[in-house]
Amino acid sequence: MLTENYDKVLGNIRSACERAGRDASEVTLIAVSKTKPESDIMELYDHGVRDFGENYIQELREKHEHLPSDIRWHMIGHLQRNKVKYIAEYVTMIHAVDTLELAKTIEKEAAKHDRVIPVLIEVNVAGEESKFGVAPEETKEFVKAVSVLPHVHVSGLMTSAPFVKNAEENRSVFEKLHELSVDINRENIDNVTMRVLSMGMTNDYNVAVEEGATLVRVGTAIFGARDYSK
């Protein structure tokens, strides 16, 4: 069932790419496995899936310890500075950098492991008070401030769009993030590439892909509804 769900999402991504005149190879599907058992991850792993997203540090640490070493772990949730040290050695990408203090902590911990950690700047495009992220008008200067950190590489931008019943309502959010990335890319800032746009989840990833997403973070459409009571 999980592999069928995954393949269905991949098919939808390919269709969205066709509608947008894009190559489907430009888009990576991240299976968001938070709260899901390791057996579910292994079912997808055996299907060839390697990119998984987690929101909680303790859960990520345990799964990383128990599961194959070639899994690419994406930290997609809000990250507390005092937790960076637990994932700095192996995390593939940190998706939600929204303060200079957090970026500096990532720099410090990455340096200890002699590696450069790719990060995405989280932008609160919709201006939701309940969401983290840098304001769109402050993003360019924030990117410049982070760019001076040698063990942190700004690989692009991410956003979490509002939860809506009609995905079309989020099209403008994705358009704005894409436009912002293009604008920043024109600046040719050292240690910054705008190759990654992490946007789109189960309810709106098709629209996000049409608007330029290169990473989509899909959980429920692959794993089913989550049980947070455990």
Automatic annotation (TrEMBL):
The keyword Acetylation does not apply. It holds the Pfam family Ala_racemase_N. Residues 10-226 form the Alanine racemase N-terminal domain. InterPro entries: Ala_racemase_N, PLP-binding_barrel, PyrdxlP_homeostasis. Its cofactor is pyridoxal 5'-phosphate. CDD domains: PLPDE_III_YBL036c_like. Keywords: Pyridoxal phosphate. Gene3D superfamilies: Alanine racemase. It comes from the Bacteria. PROSITE patterns: UPF0001 (PS01211). The modification N6-(pyridoxal phosphate)lysine is found at residue 34. GO terms for molecular function: pyridoxal phosphate binding. Pyridoxal 5'-phosphate (PLP)-binding protein, which is involved in PLP homeostasis. Belongs to the pyridoxal phosphate-binding protein YggS/PROSC family. This is Pyridoxal phosphate homeostasis protein. It comes from Eubacterium cellulosolvens (strain ATCC 43171 / JCM 9499 / 6).
